[in-house]
Amino acid sequence: MATVAVMLAASTLLAHVEIAAQSPGAVERVVIDVRTAWASAVAAYRAKPTADRISVSVRDESRGTRRDEYTVRLSPAEGERPESMLLELGSLRVFASQGQVLAWLDGVRTTYWRATYEGELDVVTLSRLIPPVSLPQLTALRGGEDVGVVTMFAPDAAWTAAAITGLDDEARVRVDGRAGDMAAQMILMPTGRFVSLSVTIAPGTIVDLKMTPIEPGDPAEWKPDLTGRQRVETLAELRPRAGDAGKNAGKDAGKNGSASGGAGR
Predict the structure, then answer these.
(1) Pairing of strands 111-116, 158-165
(2) Were both Cys, which of 29, 40, 261, 263 would link to 10 (CB 3.0–4.6 Å)?
(3) pLDDT tens-place string over residues 195-231
(4) Within 10 Å of residue 19's Cβ, how many Cβ atoms?
């Protein structure tokens, strides 16, 4: 759950938005503290289970634009329910909770992969276990006064400026930063939910993430049933074997909503 300090900071952000909207002449840009903006994201993702569908585009001046899509579902710890995460990366599912990461293919109930981690899961730790996935939502769930690593595309990004732009329903919170000589930008709703993340990773190459909130489903149903599954040593071994295709297909599908596209790492 969000701490009292985080909730107060998030309330401060909403107050800034309301004051800006009611000011004479309606100021359309209000500078705020980066920590205030980040606290709203922390509060949003630590308050209750959330889910975002993330559309990724990689724009390269020489190679055009590549697109991908994936889904992240997060549940903060509450009472006896532990913190958990479910990623939907095309047909690959990745579940993490209580020091272990499980992976399997949707619709294939014969194999699974398992790894362990110590402490709390974050973007950096996860990138050591599976191919890197940009997850600012997980970073917000981790909390902290300062913005942590939101993407392995720019692990050293420094977030230095924030402002509320627009009015009423069009209000957004823009947070700007730098990753070396390259620009980085996050856009939040006034409630703290992510709208987008953009990072320039090389001259002429920009990674854009667009987030769409969706229903998270029941966190109790995110963890797979491993009964009858054989553990494999690598993610590559999860690919369907002869006779697996279609076996028990549909038993996992739809459990947590529709599957997303590729991994978008």
Answers:
(1) unpaired
(2) 40
(3) 999 999 999 999 999 999 999 999 999 999 999 999 9
(4) 12
Of 261 and 81, more confident: 81
- Among candidate residues 134, 161, 130, 128, the one with its CA nearest the CA of residue 149: 134
Task: List the CATH number of the domain containing 201.
Answer: 2.50.20
pLDDT per position as a tens digit, 239-262: 776 555 444 433 443 444 433 333
Angstrom distance (rounded) from CA 42 to CA 87: 19
CB 44 within 8 A of CB 193: yes
- With respect to residue 202, please indicate whether it lies within any of the assigned structural domains: yes
Token pair, residue 137, equals 């939502």
Q: b/e for 147-161, b at 16 or more Cβ within 10 A?
A: bbbbbbbbeebebee
Number of structural domains the chain divides into: 1
Q: Is the pLDDT of residue 20 over 80?
A: no
Q: How far, in Å, CA of 57 to CA of 66, rounded? A: 6
Angstrom distance (rounded) from CA 257 to CA 222: 11
pLDDT of 59 strictly over 90: yes
* Amino acid symbol at 190: P
Q: Report the candidate in 93, 152, 145 with the shortest Cα–Cα distance to residue 122.
A: 152
- Give me the pLDDT at residue 245, please: 47
Q: For the chain, give me the number of helices (H) and strands (E)?
A: 4, 13
What's the domain range around 44? 4-215+226-235
Name residue 253's amino acid: A
HSE on the CB side for 110, CA within 13 Å?
14
Residue whose pair of structure tokens reads 């553990």 in the numeric block: 231
| Sequence-separated (6 or more) residues with CB below 8 Å from residue 192 | 10, 13, 39, 40, 41, 42, 43, 44, 45, 140
